[in-house]
Amino acid sequence: MAGEPEPISPAARRALEQDLADLRAERAAVAATLGRTDSEGDRADQADELQRADDLTRLDDRIDDLTVRLRQAATAGPPAAGVAGVGSTVTVRFDDGTTQELHIGEIADEDDSALVTARSPLGRALLGRRGGDAVFYDTPTGPRTATVESVGDAPAD
Hints:
By secondary structure, the chain is an alpha+beta fold. Helices cover 41% and strands 21% of the residues.
């Protein structure tokens, strides 16, 4: 995560903390299975052991990422009033004239069709913007333009 630390909403913080707890529990379960062979075993056993070791590395990397993200968010503090950040609700007018209220989030949520993640092209374009600002972002069909109509607080949990 490059640049200045981005603040996150209380709901995003809770989601990241829960994800971190789940990853730590999964890591403990995988780590407990390593080295449990009483004999040398066959190649399949060795391959399984290597896969679990790879899983541990993947889990450790994700745990480190989330720990750093939570630390950065604490350093950044809450989003500034009137400036789009993680946790903000942003009303956007797209270049086709439609208007939509979007929530900028840290983690994708399939149940929230109005959520854009801060890492998506539109989410990155919205970060740091104020009402009246034009934003430019890429889509699979080409570059697009939108205008920030307004920036508000995070939606109520």
